[in-house]
């Protein structure tokens, strides 16, 4: 799963409109600064040059340690792990908050705190026992809606949700990779959803 995320994220970018700053393989400069071995070029600081020096192997290790095992995504039902893991790399604890809000919508009672603890794990297991595929689809749809809300509020982020040609952007396509095809937005539905953006 970590290798697939690295493939989705791509190489080095330093987009001024991206709050994450300099990024390579999905690892931001902020993440690198929180890793003891983040000074990859050995010059005594962690800057853009360290991000550029990051390898695929480094990224996979960071994702597995800090974004899969660390937040306990590895303890979620297998069907849900790829989407929550991918979202955690992309949005941090918000990935878990989306999951917890969805659990509450499904009749479970968990805190929406962005932390996967025993109660969240038990609630996810119960929700998935009822219908795992339906719950996984619901998570993917909630994730897609999260991206739309960001783009609604922050015009500079719209380029991640909609292409210059007006089609689905990377964020939306990424969310839909984890949703059954019948729940993908049609081109017409997508255009209607983003029409207010101008």
From TrEMBL:
Domain of life: Bacteria
Peptidoglycan binding domain residues: 94-176
Membrane-spanning parts: none
InterPro entries found in the cross-reference section: EF_Hand_1_Ca_BS, Lysozyme-like_dom_sf, Peptidoglycan-bd_3, TtsA-like_GH18_dom
Domain TtsA-like Glycoside hydrolase family intervals: 3-92
Pfam families, alphabetized: Glyco_hydro_108, PG_binding_3
NCBIfam families reported in the protein's UniProt record: holin_dep_muram
The protein's name: Peptidoglycan-binding protein
Species assigned in the record: Sagittula salina
High-level lineage: Bacteria, Pseudomonadati, Pseudomonadota, Alphaproteobacteria, Rhodobacterales
